[in-house]
Design goal:
Helix content: 10-25%
Bound molecules: flavin-adenine dinucleotide
Number of helices: 12
Radius of gyration: 21 Å
Number of strands: 20
Distance between the termini: 34 Å
């Protein structure tokens, strides 16, 4: 049996939904993990709760706090192969490895995520077009199943379970450790261009131009401009700087800011978002700006503001990230952005990027070739849920999908259409593991 503990109530980053677990069980040692094969409630690993919705929550079940599995196991200086426990955070890896000239193969927009979480959501970001997802770089992992088996999984050993675990939402068992390759860097700096664009068409042109020559691309966008342009924004592209002299240049320390309390919800409204967008769009005077930036503000601008979810008030917020295939992307964006504009709901942080064609081994991985847009909506009850249901239908119409790591409400019908391999995946779910997300999306009609 799992011994009871109640150190903290697990939450997700969006603070929606708010659920109660029957208990929280910390896992300290990979050699002495709790006996998972109880007849009691189901279990789900929870690391740093940087998933936005309910994929890291297990209402009325047990939450396994895996953040204590935070030890490095081995590192091969020749090949860059790192083996570490699954609770090690990307921030810890960067702190140890960047000074030695190594960087993560793929990182999301926050470094406060665990290796286990990066695998379970098969995370992606600025280099998807060049490097694929995190799962593309995992060579092996050790999975503990509730019957006590400890299985090594890779492309050649237990390959089906490996494919199910990459992007497997924590449902195939407890990942104890993983092995993946870091990449060499000359110094911790990035050569960056920030380019203002005034329409979606211009975004497409900048993307096509940057794809071959830049490892990292992403755009901040303002959706509230409307009209033929559809959006405007700032396109950012970058490569690791190659000057050995910069390896000795000390990194600037940025004191983190914090949002000290939940702001009232009226603070973020269409008017304040419009004003912010106007200021942000014009923050650089020239259309093109070249800079050398240290890796931290380049990859993790939001990590500079602790607890920023509080900006959305006590009711929390919902992230919505979708992808639509390039073919038809302009029409899809026109429809989707039109619906958002008509709703009067503004998104404060909106990010646009193209996904490339690098295929992940993950059975349920979200990224697929196309255009992806991530938005934040303050939770305003039924109105917000209705808007997102409408967006689901449009994304479905354009043959796209939405990202489970950011979801808290999509219906079973829509999930099963977005992820046609879900039943094949379900065969590999550990019988004693479950999540609030999975119970919702796997319901049969
Ligand atoms: C500011 C911010 C920016 C973000 N940017 C991006 C982005 O650019 N790209 C992107 O892809 N995502 C992004 N995300 C989402 C985030 O990267 C993922 O949700 C990530 O999986 C969170 O990791 P975590 O360690 O906090 O795991 P949790 O959120 O605690 O858990 C996530 C999943 O991993 C499972 N899990 C965790 N540990 C284990 C383990 N040891 N064994 C088995 N399963 C496990 C859990 O059961 C759950 O299903 C962002 C999130 C935030 C808050």
């Amino acid at each position: 049996m799992i011994s009871p503990d109640s150190t903290r109530e697990p939450q997700s980053w969006g603070r929606y939904p708010k659920v109660k677990h029957t208990q929280v069980t910390p896992v300290y040692w990979r050699s002495e993990v709790p006996d998972l094969d109880g007849s009691g409630p189901s279990v789900l690993p929870h690391a740093y709760g940087r998933s936005y919705g309910d994929s890291c929550l297990n209402e009325n079940g047990v939450s396994l706090d895996v953040s204590h599995l935070n030890r490095f196991i081995s590192f091969d200086e020749e090949t860059g192969l790192l083996c570490c426990e699954a609770g090690v955070s990307l921030a810890e890896i960067l702190a140890v490895m960047v000074p030695r000239g190594w960087f993560l193969p793929v990182t999301p927009g926050t470094k406060f995520v665990s290796v286990g979480g990066a695998i379970a959501n098969d995370i992606h970001w600025k280099n998807h077009h060049a490097g694929g997802t995190f799962g593309c770089h995992v060579e092996r992992l050790k999975l503990l199943r509730s019957d006590g088996q400890r299985l090594t999984c890779s492309l050649t050993e237990n390959p089906e379970l490996f494919a199910a675990t990459i992007g497997g939402l924590g449902l195939t068992g407890l990942i104890l450790w993983a092995e993946f390759k870091l990449k060499r860097i000359v110094n911790p700096y990035i050569d960056v261009d920030h380019i203002r664009f005034s329409s979606l068409q211009e975004f497409f042109e900048l993307t096509a131009e940057a794809d071959q020559d830049f490892v990292y691309t992403v755009s901040w966008v303002d959706l509230l401009v409307g009209g033929e342009a559809l959006c405007r924004g700032i396109f950012t592209r970058g490569n690791h700087n190659q000057d050995p002299a910069l390896a000795r240049k000390p990194l600037k320390k940025h004191l983190p800011l914090a949002v000290p309390f939940d702001l009232p919800q009226f603070v973020l409204n269409t008017l304040t978002i419009k004003s912010f967008n106007e200021l942000y769009y014009h923050k650089q005077l020239p259309k093109r700006l070249h800079r050398i930036e240290s890796y931290d503000p380049f990859f993790y601008p939001l990590d500079g503001i602790h607890d920023w979810y509080r900006m959305y008030g006590r009711r929390g917020f919902l992230q919505y990230q979708f992808v639509v295939p390039f073919e038809g992307a302009r029409e899809a964006m026109s429809d989707i952005l039109g619906r958002i504009r008509r709703s009067g709901a503004g998104s404060f942080l909106t990010v646009l990027k193209e996904f490339g064609t690098v295929q992940s081994p993950g059975m349920l991985s979200f990224p697929r070739p196309g255009l992806t847009l991530a938005l934040d909506f303050a939770y305003a009850g039924e109105k917000t849920l209705r808007l997102l249901d409408d967006l689901d239908a449009m994304v479905r119409h354009y043959d796209g999908a939405i990202y489970p790591a950011k979801d808290a409400r999509m219906s079973a019908v829509i999930f099963q259409q977005f992820y046609p391999r879900w039943q094949e995946f379900a065969q590999y779910i550990d019988p004693h593991f479950s999540s609030s997300f999975w119970r919702r999306v796997s319901q049969k009609e």
